[in-house]
Design a protein that fits this description.
Elements lengths: L12 E2 L10 H7 L15 H21 L6 E4 L2 H16 L3 E5 L4 H12 L3 E5 L9 H7 L4 E5 L13 H10 L4 E4 L11 H4 L3 E5 L10 E5 L25 H39 L3 E4 L9 E6 L4 H10 L2 E2 L15 H5 L4 H4 L2 E5 L6 H21 L5
Parallel strand pairs: 1-11, 3-4, 3-5, 5-6, 6-7
Antiparallel strand pairs: 2-8, 7-8, 9-10, 10-12
């Protein structure tokens, strides 16, 4: 069995890698000693602690290399959500008041932080997007105010895969003297990142989105950016995030970063071919489908489609019956009966937004997986449309 085929249950075709990815076998192998024999606390001064400290710092160097940053600019967190909270709340609480600029299609980890700030005396502007899901940098410029304390725009959208022009947006923020934060949870390990060249002051990433473990993430914080810590405790992470470090998670994240750097380009090219095969097949075999997101500036791994006159959830349940796992949007909003806020922000009517499917591809997917979807989904759609109450 190959390393990639071992990552998922052979009985399941997993097409939801934007929600989470399996731990890569080489990542697990790197982590395992720190779950058993090498259990020391990295803050301890004796040898067992200092051996573990070296492993933590090696992982920090690997993450820094992935981002083209300095190791001291890397803060380990519990994941993307904590990193987003620390970036936005940390700046806001340091200032004590002011205005936040973000977009209407951000992940809930950003949107709900901004809404919390609004309840606590801050103000916010939610910049709209076009029908392709792209933020117009000029709209960000218009939203800036003298009291703006942060601009937060995600690098790539988790539902439709659209990549934002963050270099231009970061430049606009810099001209105004405002720190720029990006949620790069969907792009870290998948696209080349250079925080200095891109003008990024703060960046969030999460290990489980690129074959690392869950429960570990990073907040990159450029030199000179001052944040109020959101987790108070000990002196860990230079006093910026208290708590004993998640050593196995940190080691795994570092290994995942190392692997991503060496395999990123090959993975990107292969996934683009699979995605295009899927989209071409869906367009040929199913009538009345719309593909969402920018056609060029998007992740190679994501295909988001609205299959009109059918509920997305109904299609997902039938795909799951056949051993195919996909989604209708963000895993973090899967408990909601509301249509995707991302699709609504793109101007898609609610009744069509309800018919969305997101297929997000990964290392373990093959052409055979795509062909199985193309063999099964048209019949599922035909049957559901025959039962549908949607007007046609």
């Amino acid at each position: 069995m190959s390393a990639t085929s071992a990552m998922t249950d052979n009985a399941m075709i997993y097409l939801d890698h934007s929600a989470t990815t399996p731990v890569e076998p080489r990542v697990f192998e790197a982590m395992e000693p720190y779950l058993t024999a090498n259990f020391g606390n990295p803050s301890s001064i004796y040898r067992a602690g200092q051996d573990v400290r070296r492993a933590v710092e090696q992982a920090r160097e690997r993450i820094a290399a992935l981002l083209k940053a300095e190791p001291k600019e890397i803060i380990f967190t519990s994941g993307g959500t904590e990193s987003d909270n620390t970036a936005i709340k940390g700046l806001a609480l340091k200032k004590g008041g002011g205005h936040v600029v973000t977009t209407s299609i951000e992940h809930p980890a950003v949107l709900n932080v901004v809404k919390w700030l609004e309840k606590n005396g801050f103000t916010a502007t939610y910049v709209p997007v076009g029908s392709d899901g792209v933020v117009d940098p000029d709209e960000v410029r218009k939203a800036l105010r003298p009291d703006t304390l942060v601009v937060s725009v995600m690098h790539a959208n988790n539902e439709v895969g659209t990549i934002q022009p963050i270099e231009e947006i970061a430049s606009i923020a810099k001209e105004a003297g405002v720190p720029f934060h990006t949620d790069a949870v969907q792009t870290a390990g998948k696209l080349p990142l250079n925080v200095e060249e891109m003008g990024i002051d703060l960046l969030s990433l999460s290990g489980h989105k690129f074959y690392g473990p869950k429960g570990i993430g990073v907040l990159y914080t450029a030199k000179g950016v001052r944040l109020e810590p959101c987790v108070h405790g000990g002196h860990q992470e230079w006093g910026k995030r208290g708590g004993t470090e998640n050593v196995p998670g940190i080691v795994g994240l570092g290994k995942a970063a190392e692997i991503a750097m060496s395999e990123m380009e090959a993975d990107d090219n292969r996934l683009r071919g699979l995605r295009d095969r899927l989209e071409t097949g869906l367009a040929e075999r199913i009538s009345d489908v719309d593909f969402n997101g920018h056609r060029e500036s998007r992740l190679s791994s994501v295909a988001n489609v609205c299959v009109k006159y059918v509920e997305g959830e109904a299609m997902l349940l039938r795909l799951d019956y056949h051993g195919i796992a996909a989604s209708s949007g963000s895993a973090c909003t899967s408990g909601s009966l509301e249509p995707s806020h991302v699709l609504l922000a793109m101007g898609i009517p609610a009744e069509i937004a309800h018919s969305s499917l997101r297929f997000s591809l990964g290392k373990d997917n093959t052409e055979e997986d795509i062909d199985k979807v193309l063999d099964l989904l048209p019949a599922i759609v035909e049957k559901l449309r025959a039962m549908s109450a949607f007007p046609r």
